[in-house]
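User: I'm curious whether this sequence folds into something compact or stays loose and floppy. Could you predict its structure so I can see for myself?
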Amino acid sequence: MTRPRFVRPARALVALVLGGAVALAAAVGPSRDAHAATGGRAAPGRVSVARLKYGGGGDWYANPTALRNLLRAVRQRTALPIDTVEHVVSLRDPGLFDHDMLHVTGHGTMTLEPEEAARLRAYLLQGGFVHVDDNYGLDSSFRRVVRQLFPDRRLVDVPLSHPVYRLVYDFPKGLPKIHEHDGKPARGYGLFIGDRLALYYSFSADLGNGWEDVGTYKDDPPALHEAALRMGVNLVAYAVTSRVTP
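Assistant: Here's the prediction. I'll summarize afterward.
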């Protein structure tokens, strides 16, 4: 198994992220900008977010402009040296552990083979952060995946006092509601390993829809797009500042 390279960030980097400074981003040079790199390794020295390609028939590729827009927002609004290339990885890819955060979305069924489950479990246990966004239809199969990964753990509500709701932008009421489905409230669930939030599950919120290009959903006001991006920036910042040293 490939050894992960998760490293606790320097205090100066954390301070710059929290302050919303842009000096570090300028110092490391311009970010690469492209739509997606399939199976690619993370760019050296840059924060990397990858979309997870999974089996089972679910549309892991949903919201095609979402992650690209989020990565650009992170570049513009924080000092993180973010790689704005949207990497696409499977759990079998050699470069899996190079990525600071994995993003999972879709409407249908998600399944993992035993080897894939073992690698995702290792990614989480050794410091990785995963964001799963239920795009309306992923919930039941994803909860089976959680039981497959950690039979002794359950998803729990992330408390409103958690840093993920205030690291860069304040969300005193928690996860913002972007699109309506079945009249259910937005819920921010988490999978904790010790005191660390290792996986954040946005349910009945449709964050990814909110990250998409403005105009994709014609009835959405700009405020929803902004709220979704702000929550996404918090997720990426938390993924970096919560990393652990193996």
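Summary: The chain has one domain: 11-241. Residues 11-241 form a domain with the Rossmann fold fold (CATH 3.40.50.12140).
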